[in-house]
């Protein structure tokens, strides 16, 4: 076994490196696609990797290998090893059908296990102690411990050991208990101070405030330890200092109280005890229901690889293990990869320690660095991808300048620095520095509103970005810009300010169920399955017509008076009538069919369009309706995992539960919109313009909660998890935000220094991820003053910040352009304020009557364009002979595929076409005839346009002004310096005398391609041609 680690910085061509490495091994090392295991972080990354390896092999003429790659073991950890468990189910004594529950269902089962495993006495004790220690919810702490133990392959039986270790290490930082510091003494001291203060004739406001604070504490039936710290921070003014001095003094000595130390120990013991019992109960519940979760899959795979039969089969079948995004590997996954590596010939790990930002999800950045160090010290081979293919040269040099020193204690300089590969230039500056100022008091509202105004003015000013496809500058659109925030709350607030001033925003956010379009859709579904749901009927009427209760209330009152309150006249609205007609067969419908029927019968999409709220908002509402349909599959999976019957009513209740958990995510804005995201969610993405906000965020260090600790042992690739344990310290003074006696004591410890260094590393890694998302322009924000470098940016300790306007020269000698501006937005409404007037009864909607529109409008269905003129442009003088009377649609499909292959790769082996033709239309045509016809077209194009680039089967998708969708693929698009040339293949075998008539019939299709390509590319189309692939000719079609 040989280990190979590739250090791949952001934008250095990581996926390209993997695809070439795999393609080389498949082509030259006798490696078969079936002998590969490749794991990626996401499903999309797996599909992209498969496709790119396959395309590389096709380009090399290795079609058989390219086909094999599409069925290779390439996927996420869970999909690859889940399949392995199914393959060896018989040997392992497992069911071949795994019922895998998602995270939401796992949380539900875990909560059930926790409640069922503890006695009432244990729950009562935990409740009492958590109140005394000001722990908000001990259940959350228990569940976090369980998750950390499971993802680190720690058995439940070790929980008690972890509890004792946690107690012992915490007590090392506590002073010796004093018999004079007791709760009774604390209470008596407060009572004495209050009584003495009451004797003061003219008390100051400070003294009265101290008295009131102490009386509030004394009125509590059960005191909390946090009260002691509050008393120690009293400010009774000079008059009250002598009175409250003793009380404040004893409050500072809370750590010496024997009862405090005892309760801390008891609580830690009980929390770990609860975790141990809940882990066992969780396993029992899953076993009884035949369920597993993702962590179980990894644990079972770890167990499976120890089985002799599995080991032998893997040794015979797998030779190459590839791990993409290695820095995001969890400890348990690392142990799994370690075991698999012993069974294969080669292991390739590709990652970037600088982007290890998912520690909160269970990955361990330290383990990634341990592996890298192990490989560098002789455990394997390493190489570094040294070029940046993403960003402009100035941005690459700036990144080198900012991050080489901060990462120097983790990585060598050549593992941080990149060499710019892009040489294009733009009128826009590489770096901009925006100072967000405010009038009056500093507030998040004012700074975010100023930022929103800056975004709007920046795009409207026509800033230049580089078009990667057209390879030339163009003006930036909304979708070219992203704003990164530190947390979801700030991102959501900024989205509100942007939306208020007309900026279209794409942001992943909750609130799907409460949107009016989903309210209408669910009302139609409820009315479909239950005619007595009068609330659903009222919602349908109101949202369809805009009529408030004043229009239909009298009819309802009449129905109630007639003792028919469940009835609602179906003729009240056509939607109710259509839903009534569709109800007859609702009992036979699946959930998806019931929902689709409700949407169609209720004419929901048309109603949404009639609300006339503008194209952008309407697009988003329609996307939300599609999102609702997609959730049906998630609900059905949930029912399958929980052994529940899937019903329309259950689907509605399930959605309501997701709404309460803020898990009902809306669809992203489908149109031209800026992206607002957190730094964590931006990983793996890129935009031409990136604004890094929240740069004044302070560094947060804490030892409280649960954390993994490691013994100082050398890293062992065969046992990567050895020496790891779990520590849990509750925070008894959470309201003090780290300004208390315990935090002060811990801040002097070695553990604190280690945690501070880890927090510093993670903060710099997250900042690196954000800054490297920018392709053409990076914008950094400052708050208040122009030269104010935020707390987060200060961690870089760079002399390049803040930059001066003009040409910035870096220490390497490289230069980049800097623009600076100050943004002010003094008077703003609250982001949570709705700009629409609110009424108890909604005002009548102004609906616009629209004609029904066909949603799918393919170009091939467009009628001939009357003004088109057709001219024979060229006659190749060759013809493809056709034998017999074949199915012309099938033949046309084969001809299109073959021509696409020839035009994409003119040096293609003609035998590939012969095999394809024999398989699809045997005896009808010959592959070499098609090859000659395709080559003739290629030569004609290259003769006329030597520098042209040919794009075969170019996909297009365009939203039309009437709400329809034009989607398809153009057979051949020739890209020239002057513009595009559209060529459409036609397999009609008619002679040259019929060419003009046939071309005229398809003139509407070509005009549709022409218009769509110009809109989508912002580049002109200079010609459109019909290529008669059988009879060998070209006809130009002009409008």
UniProtKB/TrEMBL annotation:
<feature type="domain" description="UvrD-like helicase C-terminal">
    <location>
        <begin position="393"/>
        <end position="684"/>
    </location>
</feature>
<dbReference type="Pfam" id="PF00580">
    <property type="entry name" value="UvrD-helicase"/>
</dbReference>
<keyword id="KW-0067">ATP-binding</keyword>
<keyword id="KW-0234">DNA repair</keyword>
<dbReference type="GO" id="GO:0043138">
    <property type="term" value="F:3'-5' DNA helicase activity"/>
</dbReference>
<keyword id="KW-0227">DNA damage</keyword>
<keyword id="KW-0540">Nuclease</keyword>
<dbReference type="InterPro" id="IPR011335">
    <property type="entry name" value="Restrct_endonuc-II-like"/>
</dbReference>
<protein>
    <recommendedName>
        <fullName>DNA 3'-5' helicase</fullName>
        <ecNumber>5.6.2.4</ecNumber>
    </recommendedName>
</protein>
<dbReference type="GO" id="GO:0004527">
    <property type="term" value="F:exonuclease activity"/>
</dbReference>
<dbReference type="InterPro" id="IPR014016">
    <property type="entry name" value="UvrD-like_ATP-bd"/>
</dbReference>
<keyword id="KW-0347">Helicase</keyword>
<dbReference type="GO" id="GO:0000725">
    <property type="term" value="P:recombinational repair"/>
</dbReference>
<dbReference type="Pfam" id="PF12705">
    <property type="entry name" value="PDDEXK_1"/>
</dbReference>
<keyword id="KW-0547">Nucleotide-binding</keyword>
<dbReference type="GO" id="GO:0003677">
    <property type="term" value="F:DNA binding"/>
</dbReference>
<feature type="binding site">
    <location>
        <begin position="8"/>
        <end position="15"/>
    </location>
    <ligand>
        <name>ATP</name>
    </ligand>
</feature>
<dbReference type="GO" id="GO:0005524">
    <property type="term" value="F:ATP binding"/>
</dbReference>
<keyword id="KW-0238">DNA-binding</keyword>
<keyword id="KW-0413">Isomerase</keyword>
<dbReference type="InterPro" id="IPR011604">
    <property type="entry name" value="PDDEXK-like_dom_sf"/>
</dbReference>
<dbReference type="InterPro" id="IPR038726">
    <property type="entry name" value="PDDEXK_AddAB-type"/>
</dbReference>
<dbReference type="Pfam" id="PF13361">
    <property type="entry name" value="UvrD_C"/>
</dbReference>
<dbReference type="InterPro" id="IPR000212">
    <property type="entry name" value="DNA_helicase_UvrD/REP"/>
</dbReference>
<keyword id="KW-0378">Hydrolase</keyword>
<keyword id="KW-0269">Exonuclease</keyword>
<dbReference type="InterPro" id="IPR027417">
    <property type="entry name" value="P-loop_NTPase"/>
</dbReference>
<feature type="domain" description="UvrD-like helicase ATP-binding">
    <location>
        <begin position="1"/>
        <end position="392"/>
    </location>
</feature>
<dbReference type="InterPro" id="IPR014017">
    <property type="entry name" value="DNA_helicase_UvrD-like_C"/>
</dbReference>
């Amino acid at each position: 076994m040989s280990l190979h680690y590739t250090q791949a910085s952001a934008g250095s061509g990581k996926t390209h490196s993997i695809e070439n490495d795999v393609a080389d091994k498949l082509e030259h090392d006798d490696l078969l696609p079936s002998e590969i295991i490749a794991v990626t972080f996401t499903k999309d990354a797996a599909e992209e990797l498969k496709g790119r390896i396959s395309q590389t092999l096709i380009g090399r003429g290795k079609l058989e290998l390219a086909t094999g790659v599409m069925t290779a073991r390439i996927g996420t950890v869970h999909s690859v090893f889940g399949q392995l468990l199914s393959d060896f189910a018989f040997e392992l004594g497992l069911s071949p059908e795994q019922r895998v529950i998602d995270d939401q269902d796992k949380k539900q089962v875990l909560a059930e296990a926790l409640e069922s495993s503890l006695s009432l006495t244990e729950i009562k004790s935990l409740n009492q102690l958590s109140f005394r220690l000001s722990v908000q919810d001990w259940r959350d702490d228990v569940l976090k411990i369980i998750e950390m133990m499971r993802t680190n392959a720690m058995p439940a039986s070790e929980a008690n050991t972890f509890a004792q270790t946690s107690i012992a290490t915490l007590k090392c930082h506590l002073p010796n208990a004093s018999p004079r510091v007791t709760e009774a003494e604390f209470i008596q001291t407060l009572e004495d101070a209050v009584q003495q203060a009451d004797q003061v004739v003219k008390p100051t406001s400070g003294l009265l405030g101290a008295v009131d604070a102490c009386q509030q504490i004394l009125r509590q039936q059960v005191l909390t330890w946090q009260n002691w710290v509050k008393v120690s921070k009293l400010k009774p003014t000079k008059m009250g200092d002598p009175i409250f001095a003793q009380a404040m003094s004893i409050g500072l000595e809370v750590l010496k109280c024997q009862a405090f130390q005892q309760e801390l120990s008891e609580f830690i013991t009980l929390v770990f005890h609860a975790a141990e019992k809940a882990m066992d109960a969780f396993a029992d519940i899953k076993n009884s229901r035949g369920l597993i979760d993702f962590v179980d899959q990894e644990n079972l795979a770890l167990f499976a690889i120890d089985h002799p039969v599995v080991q032998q089969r893997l040794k015979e079948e797998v030779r190459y293990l590839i791990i993409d995004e290695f820095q995001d590997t969890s400890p348990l996954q690392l142990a799994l990869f370690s075991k698999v590596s012993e069974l294969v010939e080669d292991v390739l790990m590709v990652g970037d320690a600088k982007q290890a930002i998912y520690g909160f999800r269970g990955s361990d950045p330290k383990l990634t660095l341990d592996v890298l160090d192990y490989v560098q010290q002789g455990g394997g081979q390493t190489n570094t991808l040294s070029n940046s293919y993403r960003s402009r040269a100035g941005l690459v040099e700036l990144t080198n300048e900012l991050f080489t020193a901060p990462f120097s204690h983790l990585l060598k300089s050549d593992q941080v620095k990149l060499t710019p590969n892009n040489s294009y230039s733009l009128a826009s500056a590489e770096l901009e520095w925006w100072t967000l100022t405010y009038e009056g008091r500093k507030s998040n509202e004012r700074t975010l509103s100023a930022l929103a105004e800056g975004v709007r003015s920046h795009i409207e000013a026509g800033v230049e970005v580089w078009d990667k496809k057209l390879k030339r500058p163009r003006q930036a659109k909304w979708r070219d810009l992203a704003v990164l925030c530190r947390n979801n709350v700030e991102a959501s607030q900024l989205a509100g300010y942007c939306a208020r001033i007309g900026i279209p925003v794409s942001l992943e956010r909750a609130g799907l169920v409460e949107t009016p379009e989903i309210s209408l859709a669910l009302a139609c579904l409820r009315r479909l399955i239950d005619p007595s749901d009068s609330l659903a009927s009222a919602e349908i009427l109101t949202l369809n017509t805009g009529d408030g209760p004043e229009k239909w209330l009298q009819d309802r009152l009449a129905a109630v008076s007639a003792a028919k309150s469940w009835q609602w006249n179906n003729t009240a609205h056509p939607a109710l009538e259509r839903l009534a007609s569709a109800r007859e067969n609702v009992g036979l419908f699946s959930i998806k069919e019931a929902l689709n029927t409700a949407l169609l019968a209720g004419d929901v999409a048309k109603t949404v369009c009639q609300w006339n709220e503008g194209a952008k908002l309407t697009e988003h509402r329609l996307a939300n309706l599609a999102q609702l349909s997609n959730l049906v599959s998630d609900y059905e999976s949930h029912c399958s995992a929980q052994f529940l019957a899937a019903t329309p009513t259950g689907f509605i209740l399930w959605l309501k539960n997701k709404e309460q958990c803020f898990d009902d995510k809306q669809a992203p804005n489908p149109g031209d919109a800026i992206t607002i995201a957190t730094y964590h969610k931006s990983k793996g993405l890129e935009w031409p313009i990136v604004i890094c906000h929240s740069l004044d965020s302070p560094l947060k260090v804490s030892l409280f909660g649960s954390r993994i600790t490691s013994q100082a042992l050398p890293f062992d690739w065969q046992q990567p998890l050895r020496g790891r344990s779990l520590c849990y310290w509750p925070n008894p003074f959470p309201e003090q935000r780290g300004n208390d006696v315990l935090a002060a004591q811990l801040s002097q410890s070695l553990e604190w220094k280690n945690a501070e260094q880890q927090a510093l590393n993670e903060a710099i890694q997250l900042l690196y991820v954000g800054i490297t998302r920018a392709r053409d322009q990076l914008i950094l924000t400052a708050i208040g003053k122009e030269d104010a470098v935020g707390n987060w940016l200060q961690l870089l300790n760079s002399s390049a910040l803040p930059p001066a306007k003009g040409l910035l020269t870096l220490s390497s000698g490289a230069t980049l352009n800097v623009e600076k501006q100050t943004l002010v937005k003094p008077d703003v409404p609250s982001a949570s304020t709705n700009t629409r007037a609110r009424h108890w009864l909604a005002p009548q909607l102004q609906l616009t009557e629209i004609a029904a529109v066909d949603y799918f409008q393919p170009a091939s269905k467009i009628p001939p364009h009357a003004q088109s003129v057709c001219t024979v442009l060229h006659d190749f003088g060759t013809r493809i002979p056709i034998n017999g009377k074949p199915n012309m649609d099938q033949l046309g499909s084969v001809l299109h595929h073959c021509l696409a292959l020839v035009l994409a790769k003119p040096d293609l082996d003609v035998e590939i076409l012969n095999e394809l033709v024999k398989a699809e239309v045997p005896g009808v045509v010959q592959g070499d005839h098609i090859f000659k016809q395709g080559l003739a077209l290629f030569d004609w194009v290259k003769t006329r346009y030597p520098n042209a680039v040919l794009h075969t089967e170019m996909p297009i998708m365009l939203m039309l002004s009437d709400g329809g969708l034009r989607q398809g693929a153009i057979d051949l698009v020739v890209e020239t310096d002057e513009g595009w040339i559209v060529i459409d293949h036609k397999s009609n075998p008619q002679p040259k005398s019929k060419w003009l008539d046939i071309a005229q019939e398809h003139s509407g299709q070509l005009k549709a391609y022409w218009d769509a390509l110009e809109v989508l590319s912002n580049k002109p189309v200079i010609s459109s041609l019909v290529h008669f692939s059988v009879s060998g000719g070209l006809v130009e079609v002009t409008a």
